[in-house]
Amino acid sequence: MTHPPDSQLHQVPHAHDAHPPPEPQWGARQMTYAQPPPGRFARLLLRMWDKSPTWLAPAAILVCFAGAVGYVLAREPIDGAGDETTCLVKMTTGFACPGCGGTRAFFYLVQADLPAAARHHLIFVFAVPFLFYAYLAWAGNKVFRWRLPQLRPSPWMIGAFLGAAGVFTVLRNLPISPFTWFYV
Hints:
α7 packs across α8 (122-144). The protein has helices at residues 6-9, 15-18, 40-51, 56-75, 88-93, 102-110, 114-120, 122-144, 155-172. By secondary structure, it is mainly alpha-helical.
């Protein structure tokens, strides 16, 4: 089989030469993502996950939660404990970050002191029942096949919660009454 000379190769019209590609439009998909195959370590983790019992993940989260409860009960991170702050944002800027007071709020929730917990981190105390229900619905379905409705927050709800957390962070740093109630 003989090939045509190079001069003839460039003269062959192609379908894509006749019409230029269309201009990309907003929201139009240009490329598709192909997930790369898992590596050696990822394959090991996936095999272990496939062979693990269904109750293992909910139990692991419970163990982590028990460790957090044990930590706050042993350390008692309450005001006047004599420990300096370990929050890098508060140490460097003097401002309370969005998470400041969360450990103390968790300590007071474990002690069933809701007003003191809300005093240290109101947004955290607000979020705890939702987090608890989300865990209960997920773990109940995973282990016992309960069909509790899952929490499915919309993007608007997530944005509203993050916006409220941002406003809370700004308000808790204002040295004006009544916002000093939020300061930790």
